[in-house]
UniProtKB/TrEMBL annotation:
It is a multi-pass membrane protein. GO terms for biological process: transmembrane transport. The keyword Ribosomal protein does not apply. This is Pheromone autoinducer 2 transporter. Keywords: Cell membrane, Membrane, Transmembrane, Transmembrane helix, Transport. The chain crosses the membrane at residues 12-31, 43-64, 85-105, 165-195, 242-261, 267-291, 298-317, 329-359. One of its GO terms (cellular component) is plasma membrane. Belongs to the autoinducer-2 exporter (AI-2E) (TC 2.A.86) family. It is found in: Cell membrane.
Length: 371
């Protein structure tokens, strides 16, 4: 017994020394460690992208496998089921991308073009109105004197800022050729994962069983199951919500004869992919488009969107989608804010399911300790 205790103490001491050594080495050679990590990330990036593609495709593949003759014992059907379901899933993604590229993006681009065309007039009108009332608000008068630009100059300044940001983003992402190669490699890796997912799962289970104690292995598996459930429900839920909200908005705007209905509806559906705040971003774009044509209708549009959001969020969404995120609203907002600050658009999309997974695991751990 004493020998086992001493052995455990020696292992703990060795682990502590190694951990301290890693920390000291990282502090002393911080720049070199960061550069090495960046290089390794660049090397394995296609594999990470492939795993992500495989995960998203697997949601569709699993769904198709449930309806592709699931009870058949025919050898041919069993042999082709996985390949056929993968092909159907890829075809579904291609159709969604086709819809996105041919319908949503042109509509979004057209809305930006209309907004840019009408922005100078709107700016000048707001500027004239503010100038007339500047005497009543001294602070406003000082701001107007310092502004000293018309609508066209303001639009040019906005375009220059966006242009600098866009070129910086392109430079950061690298060449188009490199991105294309990464996407092709990632897609091939994803197909291999999907064809051998059961075998990979078995090997991963054996690896954990060989090198991890039972208690830690069960905790890790529980965490992975929670993450899988959260991410899959989040992806499916947000896609359903975006489609529902986009269709309802387009139909409602056509019925109430709002201008740019076929443009604003898809844009609101697209921005609804961002939880909690996305639809309001789309509504802001719609308001700016309509206010250029008819300010009164723009106010009614805000009222329409507010009512639509309440109906969709409280009646339709819970019945069709359910509680796909499982995260309180305040934490959703916090996850979006932190994710955007760390990883930009990717952080906005991934921050919520990551936070929801941590929230569920922490909630379960707290309840277990309190019981």
């Amino acid at each position: 017994m004493n020998g086992e205790v001493n052995n455990n103490k020696q292992k703990l001491t060795a682990k502590t020394i190694v951990l301290i050594g890693i920390i000291v080495f990282t502090v002393l050679y911080f720049a070199e460690v960061i550069n090495t990590l960046k290089y390794l990330y660049g090397v394995i990036f296609p594999l990470l992208m492939g795993a992500t593609i495989a995960y998203v495709l697997n949601i569709l593949v699993s769904g198709y496998e449930k309806v592709f003759f699931p009870n058949s014992y025919n050898v041919i059907i069993i042999g082709i089921r996985r390949g056929a379901c993968i092909i159907l899933s890829v075809f579904t993604i291609i159709l969604l991308l086709f819809f996105f590229l041919r319908i949503v993006i042109p509509q979004f681009s057209q809305s930006i073009g209309l907004l840019a065309a009408g922005f100078p007039v709107l700016y000048d009108n707001v500027y004239d109105w503010a100038s007339q009332h500047a005497d009543e608000i001294p602070v406003l008068q000082q701001k107007l004197e310092g502004l000293n630009m018309d609508g066209a100059a303001a639009l040019k300044k906005v375009v220059n800022v966006l242009g600098d940001w866009a070129w910086g983003t392109v430079s950061f992402m690298g060449s188009v050729f490199g991105v294309a190669i990464n996407v092709i490699l990632a897609f091939i890796f994803a197909i291999y994962i999907l064809f051998g997912k059961e075998d990979l799962n078995d090997k991963f289970g054996k690896l954990l069983k060989a090198y991890m104690r039972t208690e830690r292995r069960e905790r890790l598996c529980e965490g992975l199951r929670t993450a899988d459930e959260t991410f899959s429900n989040y992806i499916i839920g947000q896609c359903k919500e975006a489609i529902i909200l986009g269709l309802l908005c387009t139909i409602g705007m056509l019925l109430f004869r709002f201008p740019y209905a076929t443009i604003i509806g898809p844009v609101i559906g697209l921005t609804a992919l961002v939880p909690m705040v996305g639809a309001y971003i789309g509504a802001a774009i719609g308001f700016l488009l309509i206010v250029i044509v008819d300010p009164i209708k723009a106010l009614f549009f805000i009222l329409f969107i507010t009512i639509l959001q309440q109906v969709e969020g409280n009646i339709i969404y819970p019945k069709v989608v359910g509680d796909s995120i499982g995260l309180p609203g305040i934490w959703v907002f916090a996850a979006i804010t932190v994710g955007a600050g760390l990883l930009g658009i990717a952080g906005v999309l991934l921050g919520v399911p990551v936070a929801a997974t941590v929230y569920k695991l922490l909630d379960k751990s707290i309840n277990e300790r309190l019981c």
